[in-house]
Design a protein that fits this description.
- This protein is an alpha/beta fold.
- It has two domains: 159 residues, MoaB/Mog-like domain (Molybdenum Cofactor Biosythetic Enzyme, Chain A, 3-Layer(aba) Sandwich), CATH 3.40.980.10; 75 residues, Alpha-Beta Plaits (2-Layer Sandwich).
- The chain is built from nine helices and twelve strands.
- The strands form three sheets. The chain has a six-stranded mixed sheet with strand order 2-1-3-8-7-6, with helices on both faces. Strands 10-11-9-12 form a four-stranded antiparallel sheet.
- A hairpin with an 8-residue loop joins strand 6 and strand 7.
- The protein is elongated, with a radius of gyration of 23 Å.
Length: 249
C-alpha cells in the first residue's frame, strides 16, 4: 500500500564531492524528481566518508519522520562505510541478502565472487531496491533508502522508490512579488503578520542586488487556493504602506 508523505530527505556521502574531484548531481536530481511528484526535498546533507560522521547523520535522519535517500558508500571497496554504519544505527548485523544474491547470480551467470558478494551484504532485515542500470541492488531499512553514489544508477532508483511506495503530493503553486527598493527591516512587521495569517504556506524573503541598488523578492508556495489568497492579502498590505511591487516572471 502506498503512503502519503510531504517530502524526502537526502544524504550524500563522498569525499570526492567535498574536495571537488567530482561535481554533485544527486541534489538536483532528487529535487527535480520529487518536484515532478509534488513532493518536497526537506533537507540535503553532503558528508565525508568517515564512519562516525556517517553513523551520526544516519541516526539523525532515521529519527526524523520523513523517509530519506542516502547516496554513496554501499560498494565493496575499503572506503565504503555506509552499509556497516546503517547496520550499526539500526542495531542489526550485516548479512548476505538472499534475494540480492540471486539477482547477482542471474546477472553474472555464475556464483558471484566474494568481492561481489560484499555488495549485497546488507543490514539484516533490509528490503532490496532494484537497480535498472546494472542490476546491482541497493537496500532499504527503517526510513532510509540506500543507493549507489553513481547518479546514473541512483536517479532511476529514486523514481522507482517514489512510484512504488508513495503517492504524489497535492498540487502546489509558487508565486513571487518583486519589491523595488524594498527593505526587510521596514517590512518585518508586515511579514510577521503574513506568516501568522498563512502558517501553512512556505514563505521567503530574499534581498537581491540589481543594477542601481537592491530590491526584495517575497515568495510563497503551497496549495493553489491558499497561495492566491495569500497574494491578495500581501499585496493589500504592501499598498497600505506604500510599497511598490510587481509579479516576478
Amino acid at each position: 500500500m502506498k503512503q502519503q508523505i510531504t517530502g524526502f530527505g537526502l544524504v550524500i556521502i563522498g569525499n570526492e564531492i567535498l574536495d571537488g574531484r567530482v561535481g554533485d548531481r544527486h541534489f538536483e536530481n532528487a529535487r527535480r524528481i520529487l518536484a515532478a511528484r509534488n513532493l518536497l526535498l526537506k533537507y540535503a546533507l553532503i558528508i565525508a566518508d568517515e564512519p562516525e560522521m556517517i553513523r551520526q547523520q544516519l541516526k539523525w535522519a532515521m529519527a526524523r519522520p520523513e523517509p530519506f535517500f542516502c547516496c554513496g558508500g554501499i560498494g565493496a571497496t575499503p572506503d565504503d562505510y555506509t552499509r556497516h554504519s546503517a547496520a550499526d544505527v539500526v542495531g542489526v548485523p550485516l548479512a548476505y541478502n538472499e534475494e540480492a544474491v540471486a539477482i547477482l547470480e542471474k546477472h553474472y551467470g555464475e556464483i558471484p565472487s566474494p568481492h561481489r558478494l560484499k555488495m549485497v551484504e546488507f543490514p539484516e532485515g533490509s528490503r532490496v531496491i532494484p537497480n535498472p542500470f546494472n542490476q546491482v541492488p541497493g537496500f532499504s531499512i527503517a526510513n532510509g533508502y540506500f543507493l549507489p553514489g553513481f547518479p546514473e544508477m541512483a536517479e532511476p532508483m529514486m523514481e522507482l522508490i517514489l512510484d512504488t511506495y508513495y503517492h504524489p503530493g497535492p498540487e502546489r503553486l509558487a508565486r513571487s512579488l518583486v519589491l523595488p527598493d524594498g527593505r526587510e527591516a521596514d517590512l518585518a512587521d508586515l511579514m510577521d503578520e503574513f506568516i501568522a495569517a498563512y502558517p501553512d504556506l512556505s514563505f521567503s524573503s530574499l534581498p537581491r542586488n540589481v543594477e542601481g541598488g537592491w530590491d526584495l523578492v517575497l515568495g510563497m508556495a503551497g496549495s493553489p487556493g491558499r497561495v492566491e489568497e495569500g497574494v491578495v492579502f500581501l499585496t493589500a498590505k504592501l499598498e497600505e504602506v506604500g510599497q511598490r511591487y510587481f509579479p516576478s516572471d
